[in-house]
Amino acid sequence: MPGPDVGDNRVNLGIGDDTAIIKADSGEELLFTTDTLISGVHFPEATDPTAIGHKSLAVNLSDIAAMGGQARWFTLALSLPDIDTDWLQSFSTGLLLLAKKFGVSLVGGDTTRGALSITISVIGTVPEGTAVRRSGARPGDTIFVTGHPGMAALGLASIKGNIDLPDTIKTAFQKKLDYPHPRLQEGNCLRNTATSMIDISDGLAADLGHILAASECSAVIDSDSLSHWQPASSALAGTRLLDAALYGGDDYELLFTVPMDMSVLLEQEWRSSFSPLLRIGDITEGTGLKVRDRHGNLMKITERGYNHFHD
Amino acid sequence: MPGPDVGDNRVNLGIGDDTAIIKADSGEELLFTTDTLISGVHFPEATDPTAIGHKSLAVNLSDIAAMGGQARWFTLALSLPDIDTDWLQSFSTGLLLLAKKFGVSLVGGDTTRGALSITISVIGTVPEGTAVRRSGARPGDTIFVTGHPGMAALGLASIKGNIDLPDTIKTAFQKKLDYPHPRLQEGNCLRNTATSMIDISDGLAADLGHILAASECSAVIDSDSLSHWQPASSALAGTRLLDAALYGGDDYELLFTVPMDMSVLLEQEWRSSFSPLLRIGDITEGTGLKVRDRHGNLMKITERGYNHFHD
Questions:
Q1: With contact defined as beta carbons under 8 Å apart, do A92 and B44 qualify?
Q2: Which tops the pLDDT comparison, B247 or B300?
Q3: pLDDT tens per residue, range B180-234
Q4: Chain A residues with beta carbon closer than 8 angstroms to that of B35
Q5: Can you give the pTM of this predicted structure?
Q6: Cis, peptide link before residue A231, omega less than 30° from 0
Q7: Is A123–B32 a contact, with Cβ atoms under 8 angstroms apart?
Q8: What is the distance between the alpha carbons of residues A159 and A174, in angstroms, rounded to a whole number?
Q9: Residues near B216 by Cβ (< 8 Å), separated by ≥ 6?
Q10: Nearest by CB: B32 against A108, A110, A131
Q11: Which whole-number Å values give the CA distances from A201 to A167, A197, A245, in the listed order?
Q12: Which of A217, A299, A310, B108 is most buried, with most CB under 10 Å away?
């Protein structure tokens, strides 16, 4: 599979030797990550191969975005049960269009015969000392999320026939599931503002939990911020939307914290070209994650589900 | 799985965030490669998990060795049909012992449920401009190989019951198949001497073919250099050894070329701690690969097999 022509002058040697050769640069740090997608686990078996190609790269680019980095180079390890030229063509189209969009170069690969599985590894870069980790959230910080978490889970539920959605919403949610948009530009802009950041792959509650564990603090989420958004609110109950946002996965939105005194400015300056920005709660002292309803009542979130909680 | 403690002061952040963070350095180039091992394809299903862990990393380190580089950091993507603690413990032991041996750090990973498959991606480094490519062989260069190619293929044949070997040889050959030793030290020493280099994964004929294609030249191999080596010669016919060397894969030895006027010095200075060094032939003008017997007769090598050839 040829790499995309991105005119990458740091790739001294691309596909075709034992390894790629890439020029290093002082003053920067390398971000290195890998993720696997398996048919029937990470995408329904009937998924369009163009979407599989797109999503395989997108979930990896999303990890680079969550550090505030620029995605640069990637390798592809593809296992296929048999050579299917049409499938490969569609897969490549989805993969390479996304690669071109973000200027990331395919520099190596390995194709093997086996159950359908795609592993991509990405190297990104970030100016030295500026990567945004999970461990920097502090009590008083405001919590934001890009986009509307829960869309991908609702899209999957509609494919499975578990919920009934109007056609326009159904299409949008399924597109969100199949073609997640890695928030690289947003992550890059947040590099000097966010105190902590993660991408939502396991669901907001679980991924915010990772930030809280790494930062040794607690958080309160306002349920209204996640349970009322048009046009979804007109088709689904607020509790269903809240549940999808907290526990659904596969959104690949960025969840991050900023110091409270920078939060208003951030909202004002958030670019119109970016995904919507939701202010969803606050970092607090203590441990665990709580949800606050519009009346100020707190519910503690456990593994999966709410517990009414009085304190 | 915890990373090995290799005291790596360039890893600013290891496993546990969205990506690892690694300090870059000017004056060096990055080598980036990925390889997948699938059960039943790249190793027999009954293979000891310690060997699977070792081999998964070894085949990737071998690619770094073939560029003359130093292996530095790797990620592991592991698909497992179910959680088997004993299996994971043995796998990790094989993987991390080899990692520690060569000072390469595990900095990221992804574990998924699926058919047994291991994809490892490695970043290596090399001083800028010193990586050894496949494309630098020139007519007149001498061709060398480390070790005795064919051992792994003969080991596999003995496991399958296709050949009968004395126990000591059988054990050695099967160990070669299961625990290939990446020639990182040898590759590193060859950085300023070799004009081209590759590791033997597909078989000597195929991999030398890659060098010839990239370097646009031809080669003549002396059959005696590959068909007579003790103790194998006492158990197997020379033609069987030659066949295994030319067409067997999985050896992970280094195949390389050096200018003729440096070849004698190289042989003299080859360290006793290294694997044996075989001088196997010469790079010539033209195309294709030929084998020369002890009488000087040339046979042209086609896809798989010899053709008697007169010129």
A1: no
A2: B247
A3: 999 999 999 999 999 999 999 999 999 999 999 999 999 999 999 999 888 888 8
A4: 77, 110
A5: 0.92
A6: yes
A7: yes
A8: 8
A9: none
A10: A108
A11: 25, 13, 11
A12: B108
